[in-house]
Amino acid sequence: MSARWSADSVLSLAPDDSSRRAAATLARPVPWNGTGTAGDLVWGLCAGSGKNPYQVIVDLTGPAYKCSCPSRKFPCKHALGLLLLWSDGAVPDQADSPGYASAWLESRQERAERTTTPPSRTDAAASATAADSQGAAGQKAESAARRAAERAQRVTDGLADLREWLRDQVRAGLAGSGTPGGRAGAANLMATRMVDAQAPGVAGALRALAGTAGDGPGRLLAEYALLHLLIRAHERLDELPEGLAATVRSRVGYPVRTEEVLARPAVADRWLVLATRELTDAAVPGRRIWLRGRATNRWAMLLTFADPNGTWQDPATARLRPGTEIPADLHYYPGQPALRAVIGARHGDPVRAGQALPADDGAALLAQWAAALEQDPWATTWPVVVTGTPVPSGGGQRWQLADGTGLAFPLTDRDSLWTLLAVSGGRPVTVAGEWHPNGLVALTTWHGEQAVTL
Fold it and tell me: Where is the stretch described as Disordered (predicted)?
């Protein structure tokens, strides 16, 4: 049986501050029924807005989570609330788990066994395989090359259709497509065509056009121009410098296997974990983690996604939390500027890091963003560590982060800024987050040497 965790350990698993607050309201017996724990399994039924209670299960060894609620956050507030109850000793020990919990645990174990147990082979079969390995390897390489060529042709054909669609939008005028309904409907139809053409990156850019509603035709025309630039770049893919060609392929949506990335040169450092961002809008929930090397001062972005069975594809990466650092080798994906990476060899466990690296001012932030756009014109996100004071604007309805030179950046995309305001107390604070064309998303701040997730 696992030792009870502290409440702080449970809350550190929360994807954001609103999840922590919601979990605290569920950490009481009233909404729960049929709770129990046996071995490394914790379960319970939580009353929700529907007729049937949510079935909530946690496997402490992952940890891994399963909840029947519709939330796309991972773990959801119900799983966190159940863990808070369990950590407080309010979940009774049971001899057996209920059917829904046992079935989920068994399915997880079966998948793990299929992944780790290789099929048995007779000596004769092994000898035959060894004899035919060279021919099979050649056939596999030829097949892979053929599939790659077929995909490239499908992408090329799809982008040609997109080019004609963009021309039609401009010829017809932006008035109709500038309305939210007209824009979303036409763009979503073309996004479906891009999925068929195996260009998921372009499909995502088209679906994002609906989010530009209210920004006027200038913003829409700028997005159309970037798509047209991507099409032209793809047409000249073989003529582009290696780094830019890799960026174009990434923006279109060509896949890169992890094995290929791990074969690239390693960058060893003590990597500070500065911020995390939950990705709940995509088809598969994910988590974006921002690191910065102490010695190299290089940024790195890690991505991990949730499996349908309630676990992270890379649990060790998903458990990284702001305010820690890890000695490790990172391998960067091809592209410019080099940003997305995967962890290779780990040279120790994550430890508390204390204060972040020295922060930039607003001018340095804008210079870094300009340099990033020079290398990747389609970039929409850039990591930042900046010092400033939260100040109100727009009659107190909006907030900005003002640095010591007078530059101020709008704070966007947060449910609440009360945590940041409380830590600041009207004084300058260091903030780590993401810079987007419409402003700064604050993800982490520091109270002394304590990282505070926003």
Answer: 107-152
